[in-house]
Amino acid sequence: MKTKQRIVQGALELFNKQGERNVTTNHIAAHLGISPGNLYYHYSNKQEIIRAIFEDYTSELLDRFRPYESQGESLVLLKHYVNSTFSLMWKYRFFYANLADIVSRDTQLHHAYLEVQEKLRVNLVAIVQSFLTLELIEVDSQDMPRLVTNLHFIATGWLGYQSAMNANQKVTEAMIMQGMLQILAMVKPMATQLGREQLLLLEEGLQMSCVAEK
Fold this sequence. Notes:
The chain contains eleven helices and no strands. By secondary structure, it is mainly α. The mean pLDDT is 91. InterPro entries: Homeodomain-like_sf, HTH-type_Tx_Regulator, HTH_TetR, TetR.
């Protein structure tokens, strides 16, 4: 693995474990067993490393949340999006937990974040439309934008909310799974009979995972 990639992965690991505010470039260099000079050869400061992590996050986000034209097994599709949400929130948990602070300190990063979120929203509308086509939910067209906003809000804001409610408590997988349950609860009132059956299966799986984590 190239040094530049090792720096990004090492920084992500430390940010998740210790909190981005508590980690310096010297900590990252020591963690990787390289000199600070070697790190600065690739990244001039910590903010550049955060931007590189965000680029990786963006690539994964847009790939995982792209609409699929195939109308195959709907439960598989639902599981894919739920698992993708969980995986991203866990892998980049430092970012989700402290989003407002991180983007407020970097205008360039904030602009990039807004651009990505606009692309994501287009994809989310198409994904929800596919759930309509698969007859998993029933939603009036006028309510579609609000539903997408609410789902997006829970996914992006859940860990920030949990961090505020549980100060100094580390993010756990069970905490993220509770966020997934919250998303399912948002969708359930508009689910069809088929949709409710499949949401229940997903719900039971998440609840079992939450119990196992405790």
